[in-house]
Amino acid sequence: THFGYETVSEAEKAKRVYKVFENVAQKYDVMNDAMSLGIHRLWKDKLLHAMHPQPGARLLDVAGGTGDIAFRFLDYIRFQQDRQKRRATRSMQTPSWQDISINYSTEDDNEPRESSAVVCDINKEMLKVGKQKAESMGVSSGLSWVVGDAEELPFDDDQFDIYTIAFGIRNVTHIDQALQEALRVLKPGGRFMCLEFSKVTNPVLARLYDAYSFQMIPVLGEVIAGDWKSYQYLVESIRKFPDQEEFKHMIEDTGFYCVHYHNFTGGVVALHSGFKL
Ligand code: SAM
Questions:
Q1: What residues form the annotated binding site for S-adenosyl-L-methionine?
Q2: What confidence tens digit (pLDDT) does each residue in 72-129 have?
Q3: Atom of ligand 1 nearest to the CA of 32
Q4: Where does S-adenosyl-L-methionine bind (predicted)?
Q5: 65 close to ligand 1 (CB < 6 Angstrom)
Q6: Rg (Cα) of the chain, in Å, rounded?
Q7: Per-domain residue ranges for the chain?
Q8: Residue whose CA is closest, atom 6 of ligand 1?
Q9: Residue 16 — pLDDT band, cuts 50, 70, 90?
Q10: Looking at ligand 1, which atom is closest to the CA of residue 44?
C-alpha cells in the first residue's frame, strides 16, 4: 500500500498514520483553520445541513478526531428541539391546523429518546484534545468518545441512524473494509455520509489548488506545528484518494443504496451519501 507517494507495507502505513495524528493532535484545529482558510467549517456545516438530523437520532462519527462533526450534530439537534418547543408553545396559544398536525406527528406517548453522538477514532491523542474541547464548551450530555479502528468497529450490528466520516477515510488502510463496517453498524434505513477531499473539476482551480497544497501546506505545517512531513503526507494522501465517481462505485459495491455525491468548492471536497436498506 502507500503512505503518500511512498510504497510501504500495510502495517507500516497504519503505524505512520497513527504517528502523523499523534504529532499534530495539539495543533490540529489551528492547522485546519490555517490550511483551509477556515473553509473546513463551511464544509462541515454543509454536511450537517444535508444530514438534517432530528431529535432522537444516534450518530457515529468515525475518524472523528477532535469532535467537530459531533459538536455540530448536537448543536443542530438542540436548535431543532428549541424550534419544536417554540412551535408547540405557539400552537397552545393560537392553534392552527398546521401546528396541530406538527404536534400530532412528533409527539409520542413515550418520552422521546435522547440524541447521541459517539466519536470514534483510532488515535487517543486526537480524542483527548476533543474531550478537552467538550469540557471547555460545557458539552457532555449525549456525547461519548471511543478508541476504535474504522476497519473493525467496536460496536454491535444495526446500532446507529447516521454514520459519518469526515476527512478520515483516505487515512484508512482498507477502505472497502471500513465501508463494510459502516454498513454493519448502521440500522436498516440508516445513512452513510462521507466528507473527503476529492478531484477538482475546474482545470484553472485545479492548478491553483495544486500549487497551493503542494507548496503552502507543508510550509504551514512546519511553521505552525513544526512538522513538515506529516503535512506533506496529508497532501499526498489527498492525491491518491479515488475520485468522486470511483468512490461512489465503491460505496455502491459495499451494498449501500441511493448513493450520490455533491461537490463543494469545485470538487476540492465531495460529500458522498448512501443508505442501508
Ligand atoms: N473528522 C475529523 C475532522 O474532520 O476534523 C478529523 C479528521 S483527521 C484529518 C483524520 C482522523 O482519522 C484522525 O483523527 C486519525 O486518527 C483518524 N484515523 C486514521 N485512521 C483511522 C482508522 N483506521 N480508524 C479510525 N480513525 C482513523
A1: 66, 121, 149-150
A2: 999 999 988 888 889 888 877 765 544 443 333 344 545 668 999 999 999 999 999 9
A3: 5
A4: 66, 121, 149-150
A5: yes
A6: 20
A7: 2-75+113-275
A8: 65
A9: confident
A10: 4
User: Is 2-75+113-275 a CATH 3.40.50.150 domain?
Assistant: yes
Q: Give the CA-trace dihedral at 178, 146, 237, 132, to 10 degrees.
A: 160
- The size of the chain, in residues, is 277
Residue reference for cell 484553472 = 204
Strand residue runs (E) in 95-200: 116-121, 143-147, 160-166, 186-197
Q: Judge if the beta carbon of residue 64 lies within 6 A of ligand 1.
A: yes
Task: Give the mutation target among 3, 41, 171, 230 for probing the ligand 1 site: most ligand atoms within 8 A of CB.
Answer: 171
**For residue 214, which phi and psi values (nearest 5 degrees)?**
-70, -35
Ligand 1 centroid to 84 CA: how many Å? 34
pLDDT in tens, 160-207: 999 999 999 999 999 999 999 999 999 999 999 999 999 999 999 999
Q: Supply the ipTM of this predicted assembly.
A: 0.99
CA of 165 to the centre of ligand 1 (A): 8
Query: Which of 95, 64, 24 minimizes the C-alpha distance to 162?
Result: 64
Measured between alpha carbons, how far is residue 276 from residues 165, 184, 266 in Å?
16, 9, 28
pLDDT in tens, 81-93: 888 889 888 877 7
Cα(253)–Cα(245) distance, integer angstroms: 12
